[in-house]
């Protein structure tokens, strides 16, 4: 039976994730506490893994109430900051690490998703992670999970099952996880981040070339090829119908409902 096997939040954009048993869906469709914080430079550009490979070397840990953040750079002792009360000290620490003037911003209503048109949780199946990890000689499922940074993981299904959760550009695929209704939008376009080791930032040789070749070969026959202008796409972007305020819980059943107009 398709079910929600895992939930991962990334409270601070581009930093380490947090595995939780349940997560709230906000009115915006985003997961509460996911990408709630982010670093910005003085030009207002986000400081993330796409732009700065050294961010992979930062280890981070949030308190259970998401109020304090512990950071550790290579060869240093961990430092803990209350994000609101010690914002200046946190920004100074991050500015020293990046050698940039850093500002920390918070958005509790939407977070800072890459795709603001589809701010719902990203979704992939456990079997897909296992299949893609097998494309590489020394890539584990755990490491691939850290690289892809997907929110929801579906168990009890075959590899690439989630590719049925999007249709053509004029339609969304509606499905339900527990009491939460979600709409699959499109296959997620990957960036440079999955090509790098999640702990060191060192690039994996020929990662993207290997990915493109295998993704094309394993694409299910029933998938709409028009949604793939290239094959460096994996996982599904989602949104939620307006007005929802509900909870996703590990173990919830996943039920397909059908197409709706985009």
Fill in the keyword field for this structure.
262 residues, alpha+beta, M1 Pyruvate Kinase, Domain 3, 2 domains, 4-stranded mixed β-sheet, 16 strands, 15% helix, globular
Short description:
The protein contains four helices and 16 strands. The protein has 262 residues and is an alpha+beta fold. The model has no long low-confidence stretch (mean pLDDT 96).
Explain what this protein looks like in three dimensions.
- The chain is 15% helix and 31% strand.
- The chain is an alpha+beta fold and 262 residues long.
- It folds into two domains: 3-8 and 117-261, M1 Pyruvate Kinase, Domain 3 (Beta Barrel); 37-106, no CATH class.
- The strands form five sheets. The protein has a four-stranded mixed beta sheet. A four-stranded antiparallel beta sheet has the order 14-13-12-16, with no helix packed on it.
- Strand 1 and strand 2 form a beta hairpin.
- The longest helix is centred in the middle third of the chain and has 12 residues, at 87-98.
- The radius of gyration is 18 Å and the shape is globular.
- Residues 87-257 form the MOSC domain.
- InterPro entries: MoCF_Sase_C, MOCOS_middle, Pyrv_Knase-like_insert_dom_sf.
Secondary-structure blueprint:
Blueprint (H helix, E strand, L loop, with lengths): L2 E7 L8 E3 L1 E4 L11 E4 L5 E2 L11 E4 L5 E5 L6 E4 L4 H12 L4 E4 L16 E3 H8 L7 H8 L3 E4 L15 E7 L2 E10 L17 H12 L14 E7 L6 E4 L4 E8 L1
Parallel strand pairs: 10-11
Antiparallel strand pairs: 1-2, 1-11, 3-15, 4-5, 4-9, 6-7, 7-8, 12-13, 12-16, 13-14
């Amino acid at each position: 039976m398709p079910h929600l096997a895992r939930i991962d939040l990334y409270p601070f954009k581009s930093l380490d994730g947090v595995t939780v048993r349940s997560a709230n869906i906000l009115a915006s469709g985003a997961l509460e506490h996911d990408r709630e914080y982010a670093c910005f430079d003085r030009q207002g550009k986000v400081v993330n893994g796409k732009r700065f490979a050294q961010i992979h070397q930062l280890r981070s840990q949030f308190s259970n109430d998401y109020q304090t953040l512990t950071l550790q750079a290579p060869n240093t002792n961990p430092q803990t900051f209350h994000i609101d009360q010690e914002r200046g000290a946190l920004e100074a620490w991050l500015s020293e690490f990046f050698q940039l003037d850093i500002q920390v911003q918070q958005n509790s209503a939407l977070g800072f998703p890459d795709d603001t048109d589809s701010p719902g949780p990203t979704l992939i199946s456990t079997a897909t992670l296992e299949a893609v990890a097998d494309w590489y000689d020394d890539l584990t499922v755990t490491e691939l999970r850290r690289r892809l940074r997907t929110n929801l993981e579906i168990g009890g299904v075959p590899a690439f099952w989630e590719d049925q959760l999007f249709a053509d550009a004029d339609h969304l695929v509606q499905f339900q996880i527990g009491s939460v209704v979600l709409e699959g939008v499109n296959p997620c376009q990957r960036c440079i981040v999955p090509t790098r080791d999640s702990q060191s930032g060192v690039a994996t040789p020929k990662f993207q070339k290997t990915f493109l070749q295998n993704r094309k070969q394993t694409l299910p026959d029933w998938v709409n090829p028009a949604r793939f202008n290239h094959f460096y796409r994996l996982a599904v972007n989602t949104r939620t119908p307006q007005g929802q305020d509900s909870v996703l819980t590990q173990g919830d059943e996943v039920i397909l409902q059908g197409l709706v107009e985009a």
